[in-house]
Amino acid sequence: MGSEIPQLHIFFFPFMAHGHMIPLVDMSKLFGTRGVKISIISTPANAPLLSSTIQRSNDLGIEMDLKIINFPVEAGLPEGCEILTPSLTEEKRRACLSYF
């Protein structure tokens, strides 16, 4: 019986602001170039920002995928808090950040 070492699989969950997502994806690609399987967890609103980079990485042989999770309003999180953009009012930004 051969004893195979399972491939390391790392999950990344970036803070939901553009300035955090881009460096995290860059860091995850570095792990991927070392043979680590990468999954990036995102919300539906953030997924389009990440999907083209992940596809390009896959085309280069870096094993990455995107896992989508919903942030349900029913759980008490204010609506629209799945992505923090400059267009949010200060009041809305504080409400969103209070959950983290």
TrEMBL record:
Keyword annotations from UniProtKB, A to Z: Glycosyltransferase, Transferase
User: Which SUPFAM superfamilies does its entry note?
Assistant: UDP-Glycosyltransferase/glycogen phosphorylase (SSF53756)
Under the GO molecular function aspect, what terms does this record hold? UDP-glucosyltransferase activity
Identify the Gene3D superfamilies for this entry: Glycogen Phosphorylase B
Q: Organism's domain of life?
A: Eukaryota
What family is it from? Belongs to the UDP-glycosyltransferase family.
**What is the protein's name according to its record?**
Uncharacterized protein
What is the originating organism of this protein?
Dipteronia dyeriana
